[in-house]
Design a protein that fits this description.
- By secondary structure, this protein is α/β, with parallel strands linked by helices.
- Helices cover 36% and strands 20% of the residues.
- Helix 9 crosses helix 10 (277-284).
- It is globular.
Length: 352
């Protein structure tokens, strides 16, 4: 099947061939084989797609956490609300260093092949199918691929597979555009993750990513110590905790009196100025995300995204830039649109 023609074995680099009878992708000699289940090639150990297995490693716990998150009804069809669409458009533009939708369209008009490395529900594919002639590949470590597959089943130019971005089943220098939105910081080795996905970019191609930035002093302390407990919770338990953090943020948002600081507090990374109290607590003290433009269920999942996965990390701008440079990328753009200054970096660059 032409849809599966790009795949190779991540370890041996052998080309894989589709076997319609066995529903596998296998090497020519048959010494390597991967199952195709529900139309999705699986390049991960069975425990990643067999929900009965208990997560006994940090990687599996992280994959299971995101599989559960992306299967939530509120997230399955991400992009149905106007607030969703505006925020996702802003993210996609910033991640690929574009100033407008027209500029993004020009990128995709010239792109033969793209890779969404850590696709979640594949919102970038079904919301931004900017060129039906572009062959678009999506991978995710988690069972989010089940949702991504259903969301893009009507799109013949999209192929979904389950794989780790640290062990991608594609030849090097294959893709014109590769992007990883909010994924790198959820791996065991973010620098290696950038290097591995960067290898799949063709010379002259673009790599884009969104990566959490390092937080101010107290927020880092709180995040680190709270996660010692929340990563050990079950998904259901952490959803309950995350709901309480949402309600904290919601309660704080009702306090409209501004917080005014007359002097910088250098050690804590806090500058003098006037602050909205909820934003101040979220930015400088503890993650209690809340935005009145979104429903509470969405806010719960934003908070869960940080508190539950075993792998989650914050990084400096210098770190992120060094990863891209080490992977062979130049002409780097590191953007933080208004409102994202305390959240992360949208970084993109061209392969030498």
């Amino acid at each position: 099947m032409a849809k599966f023609a790009r795949f190779i074995d991540p370890e041996t680099k052998q080309k894989l061939f589709y076997n319609p009878t066995a529903q596998t992708l296998a090497s020519e000699k048959g010494d390597v084989s991967y199952p195709i289940i529900n139309g999705i090639p699986r390049f991960v150990p069975p425990e990643f797609y067999q929900e009965s297995c208990q997560p006994d490693t940090a990687e599996l716990q992280t994959g299971r956490s995101f599989g559960d998150k992306w299967s939530e009804p509120r997230i399955k069809a991400l992009g149905q609300t106007e607030a969703d669409r505006l925020a996702l458009k802003e993210q996609f533009l910033a991640m690929l260093g574009c100033n407008s939708l027209d500029e993004l369209k020009r990128l995709f008009k010239a792109a033969r092949l793209t890779l969404n490395a850590g696709c979640g529900v594949a919102w970038s594919e079904y919301l931004f199918d900017l060129n039906p002639e572009t062959e678009r590949h999506c991978v995710d470590l988690s069972l989010a691929v089940e949702v991504a597959y259903k969301n893009t089943a009507h799109m013949p130019n999209v192929t979904v597979s389950q794989a780790s971005i640290l062990e991608l089943p594609y030849p090097d220098e294959l893709f014109d555009i590769v992007y990883a939105c909010g994924v790198v910081h959820h791996t065991k080795d973010p620098g290696k993750a950038v290097f591995e996905i960067g290898k799949k970019v063709a010379p002259g191609g673009i790599l884009g990513s969104y990566i959490y930035n390092k937080k101010p002093f107290i927020r880092e302390l709180c995040d680190h110590n709270i996660r010692k407990h929340t990563t050990k919770m079950s998904y259901a338990e952490c959803i309950k905790f995350s709901r309480k953090m949402t309600l904290l943020g919601k309660a704080l948002s009702k306090l409209t009196e501004p917080l005014i600081l007359k002097e910088d507090i250098e050690l804590l990374g806090i500058k003098a100025g006037e602050y909205n109290l909820q934003h101040f607590i979220y930015d400088y003290i503890v993650k209690c995300w809340y935005n009145p433009d979104y429903d509470d269920e969405y806010a719960d999942l934003v908070n869960l995204d940080w508190y539950h996965p075993s792998y989650a990390s914050h990084h400096t701008k210098e770190e992120v830039i060094s990863w891209f440079e080490a992977a062979g990328f130049r002409n780097l753009k590191c953007l933080q649109p208004s409102g994202w200054e305390h959240s992360g970096y949208f970084i993109s660059g061209n392969k030498l």
